[in-house]
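User: Okay, second chain of the day. Same drill as before: sequence in, structure tokens out.
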Amino acid sequence: MLTSNFIGYNRSANGQDSFQAESPESGEKLPESFYWATDGELEETVALSANAFEVYKKVSLLARAHFLEAIAQELNNDSTAIIERVSLETGYPNGRARNEFVRTCNQVLLFAKMLREGSWVDARIDTADAERKPAAKPDIRRLLVPLGPVVVFGASNFPLAFSTIGGDTVSALAAGCPVIVKAHPLHPGTNALVSLAIVRAALHQRMPEGVFSSLHLTNEMAEQLVMHPYIKAVGFTGSRSTGLRLYEAALKRDYPIPVYAEMSSINPVVVLPGAIHTNGAVIAAGLADAISLGAGQFCTNPGLLILVNTADTEHFIRQLANATNEKAPQPMLSKAILKNYFEKLTGILSLAGVSPLHDHPAGHEEAKGSNKVKPFLFEVSGATFLANIALQEEVFGPATMIVRCDGFDELAAVLEFIESQLTATVHATSSDDIFLQQKIIGILANKVGRIIFNGYPTGVEVGDAMQHGGPYPSTSDVRFTSVGTAAVIRFVRPIAFQDFPDSLLPPALQRSNPENILRKVNGQLTSEKL
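Assistant: Same drill. Structure tokens below.
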């Protein structure tokens, strides 16, 4: 196992301090010791990244596509070892680990396809008109160019899809930015195997050294890296407290940089009476699956279920409770995450008006020494929810709060009261008032990045149209997504060239359009030469 830091094409372990990963299943420490990076290693890494940027930003779109395709191939070459290590470090079943691996490779290839197509650089050309009166019109050409070295923070719950070669890393590489990954300490072995695959691909494709590095950093050193003057952007997925700390660190620099932080979300699900009456059993089964998936350790976990009291409501809640009771316990990712889950859940259960629908979690299997948990439901009235902002705090794990509203006016008030989120879901049928549905969707559209109709928020499709990011506090910047090809826009900036000779222009703006991309020329989309 590779236990050192990856600094460009080399591995380094100059530090004296190390740590070990733990198995979530057994709680035992895994045998390898991974070395924390030193100040010197951090400085060496950043310097390499800055030097690499001067070369990598000029690499053609096609060459970047070849690089990403080579990464996907190297990952597939090591698929067995990577999937086994993911399962060992997360407790995920082999099938879940394999699905995430396939999703990750497909995500890398999707960005390679985007690079080959090329229109994402948003090339715009307004040609000159010397005869225009009263003043001649200049030739102006605009496109998006990479920002510079990017720091990516690996996520605890997705060791592949949101970590070393996750959406932040692949979109930054696609944009033309070198990447320094702050490896997550819960899955350092997975990081090592993936990092090695990326480095091999970079070598084979003759990318500049420093286009990718990966470091094991303490929290203090991670903030030091964010504040380094050579770093130009940060990608983060994790808790609100850590995301805000990094955001604040970036603001303390001599000049601020963007921190694209996906932080927390309870993802409200509204089930209207007609949907309960018509499809209650099916919805309850689907919700139970979504709540328990991965022990609820998803940023899109449905943590809030909002209902209106009708004759069918009590039966629907019993159906959901029975369906969640049937779910087997699943391991949390670490003892620290388990501890945080119980502390937050216990705090909420101590509040007035909160009623658990299962035995108190202290009576569950996990209290006997296991790291596993079962789904947990509790309910409050609409009035109780509206009276206590603390009920909106995310409980990272398989816990869902049911809010029972007395009428549609209270339902609307609850929706208006909810903080902004990544997602919201509405279940309705033709028997539910269409104007009510429109009102609910209108309220939620102001608060979330994605609305699901008659579905479930877990399972984020990777594609061109996906939006995974919502208004603050779910993310630090509502304008961007961390999933899908639009994620590349986070790591570029616009620049315009006025009256430049063709030979000095970037290829995307040259008359011959050598990369054959779609451009907007004098207001018309075309791939033709000028």
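Residues 362-367 have pLDDT under 50 and may be disordered.

User: Thanks, on to the next one.
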